[in-house]
Amino acid sequence: MLHQSCQPVTGTILVADDQASNRELLEELLTAEGFKVISVLDGAAALQELAETQIDLVLLDVMMPHLNGFEVCERIKSNPETYLIPVVLITALSDKQDRIQGIRDGADDFLTRPVDRTELLARVRSLLRLKHRTDELERAESVLFSLAHSIEGKDPYTHGHCERLSEYSTSLGNCLGLPEEQITALRRAGIVHDIGKVAVPDAILLKPGRLTEEEWKVMREHTTVGERICAPLKSFRLVLPIIRHHHEKLDGSGYPDGIRGDAIPITARILQIVDVYDALTTERPYKRAFSITDALQTMKEEVAKGWWDPHIFEQFEQLMRSGTADSLSQGAAIGK
């Protein structure tokens, strides 16, 4: 078996250049090394190909008519469907400003004409290795999301719960001015926060009545089990505290660790708020769905008990009453 660093690097490379001789040269160099190459003659064709084909790396000539390489690069990197695809800009220009412009537009690397074969292949292989690792990470995340949705799917009363929490929490995080990495963590945590329930027997998970103390003990373990399931993914570093602590309470009466106040991560405090709200406004076998007003009033009483963060709740209440999150509220109407 080959060591990972010795394994051949493969992939599909898109070459965009309005000069046929340049395209032919790059195609010849790359296909000789086992890469699949798709060549197009302008930026518009490159974007069209990206929309239709699975591409692993893009080589863009800067000086193309209509859409130049900078513009195509910027569009690739601003599209959530393509922004992880490495882009290499190829230019005869050596001006510093052009490289700065390329960096601003999100270029991953640069090559200068005339292209050196050894440099081309080294840069292509390096970026493709990185892309393959990114793809593996995305596949791992996809498996976790699928598992989380399968757990949610066991109970018809929780349909859409994961998506709603993901949307609610990211909206609230943005209102509170959280940095982008924490917003991303909230988006992921909304989906996987209850993934530890995979270890909870259905007899407990789907029980319509009140749980016994022993059953509650099993149920409460889903926070730590979920943390262990997601721990191997380094990209979930900021998600783990949310999974573990989203059932803590500000007064220390929550679980699993009984921490209180600011010791509870702000992202977990955000998910607490939206999780409680979604539970209140969703019909369950043992209760009706609350209106927005009734749910917020109930939560306000719980804030007064010292359970939830008052500042975060205030922001959430404003968000819900402003109508910003109307599309997420399942049509619940504010009571008169």
Detail the topology: elements first, then pairings.
Blueprint: E1 12-16, H1 20-31, E2 36-40, H2 43-52, E3 57-61, H3 69-78, E4 87-91, H4 96-104, E5 109-112, H5 117-152, H6 161-175, H7 180-192, H8 202-205, H9 213-220, H10 222-230, H11 240-245, H12 266-280, H13 292-304, H14 310-321
Parallel strand pairs: 1-2, 1-3, 3-4, 4-5
Task: Give structural attributes.
single chain, 336 residues, alpha/beta, Rossmann fold, Hypothetical protein af1432, 5-stranded parallel beta sheet, elongated, disordered N terminus
Please describe what this structure looks like.
With 336 residues, the chain is an alpha/beta fold. It folds into two domains: 4-135, 3-Layer(aba) Sandwich (Rossmann fold), CATH 3.40.50; 153-328, Hypothetical protein af1432 (Orthogonal Bundle), CATH 1.10.3210.10. Helices cover 51% and strands 7% of the residues. The protein is built from 14 helices and five strands. A five-stranded parallel sheet has the order 2-1-3-4-5, sandwiched between helices. Helix 2 runs parallel beside helix 3. The longest helix has 36 residues, at 117-152. It is elongated. The protein starts with 11 loop residues before the first strand and ends in a 15-residue tail after the last helix.
Number of helices: 14
Range of strand content: 5-15%
User: N-to-C SSE series?
Assistant: EHEHEHEHEHHHHHHHHHH
- DSSP, total strands: 5
Principal-axis shape: elongated
Summarize the structure.
With 336 residues, the chain is α/β, with parallel strands linked by helices. Helices cover 51% and strands 7% of the residues.
